[in-house]
Design brief:
The structure is a homodimer. By secondary structure, the first copy, chain A, is an alpha+beta fold. Chain A folds into two domains: 56 residues, Arc Repressor Mutant, subunit A (Orthogonal Bundle); 71 residues, Gyrase A, domain 2 (2-Layer Sandwich). Chain A has five helices and six strands; from the N terminus they run H-H-H-E-E-E-E-H-E-E-H. The N and C termini of chain A lie far apart (47 Å). Chain A binds a DNA duplex through helix 3.
Chain lengths: 141, 141
DNA sequence: GAATGGTGCGAATATCTATGCGGCGCTTGA
DNA sequence: TCAAGCGCCGCATAGATATTCGCACCATTC
């Protein structure tokens, strides 16, 4: 029997490149690619792949976003709490990049950042929020 | 006849607060809220609302992102093309905020921005891209 | 008051999807 | 060896959803 994972990968691919409205059509497209199966299998595959049907067509879910923060690991030097803010020390010139990445990380309670050249002040709306910021940052150090 | 929009709002609400697996169930829940209708109407409503069915349950799509740019309307003064770049004039001190917002707006072909105190230079990779930037900016002026 | 056009509706039904079930092939362990 | 367990499969069909069609209602126009 063919590997189910190969078939599922083919399904993802097909759904990305074409608007497909029914499992019947998908079945036919898969056939062209050499995967011969049946509609019930597709029904199950689509559930496993967590594919959604929206506005009449199947949609593969967005790839889970890689937080840009992870890529900035090398720019971060250290971290220090000040009241319920957090101060970050970065490589020279890297502060605004780090600040921007932090803001896009969607940390709950993060109000804003002020970036100098190598220092970022992270303002949060509570002590708990600043703890979340610190935890997030330490994950990267 | 009851306003369809009210019913649709009720649907969104229901889907947010409960895992609902079929239109039949949704029909019943709506009934409890005082909206009496039929399955075909739900089918059409769910399409209008762009609701997805995923892993057996209905999911309201993420709230459409409000571009931060819209909030910066008051900070923008004027706009002017220079070659295939665009120069933006802003309120004093607002340039970097505007630049950041523009970058997060996901304009196709936008390469980067340089922000001074009240001026932003927006670099794009083609004339067409700079036109997109200008159109976007003028929407706000 | 017709005639016209637009919008929303729901019964009936066509179409699409999920699932109960039994079969096949592989692996494990007595 | 072979029986039990498991994953995967597809047929048949139950179940869920989309669409066709015709009606009701309201506004606009003549």
């Amino acid at each position: 029997m063919a590997d189910p994972d190969l078939r599922r990968e083919a399904i993802r691919e097909l759904l990305r490149e074409e608007e497909i409205a029914s499992q019947e059509v998908l079945l036919e497209r898969l056939g062209r690619k050499g995967f011969h199966t049946s509609q019930p299998v597709l029904s199950r595959d689509l559930r496993v792949l967590n594919v959604a049907k929206q506005a009449g067509f199947y949609r593969v879910s967005e790839e889970e976003r890689v937080t840009p923060l992870a890529a900035l690991k090398s720019l971060l030097r250290s971290e220090q709490p000040v009241s319920h803010f957090v101060l970050l020390y970065c490589e020279p010139g890297a502060a605004s990049a780090v600040a921007r990445a932090l803001e896009s990380d969607g940390i709950d309670g993060l109000v804003g950042t002020i970036a100098g050249d190598d220092t970022v002040l992270v303002a949060s709306d509570s002590h708990a929020a600043s703890m979340r910021v610190r935890r997030r940052v330490r994950e990267l150090l």
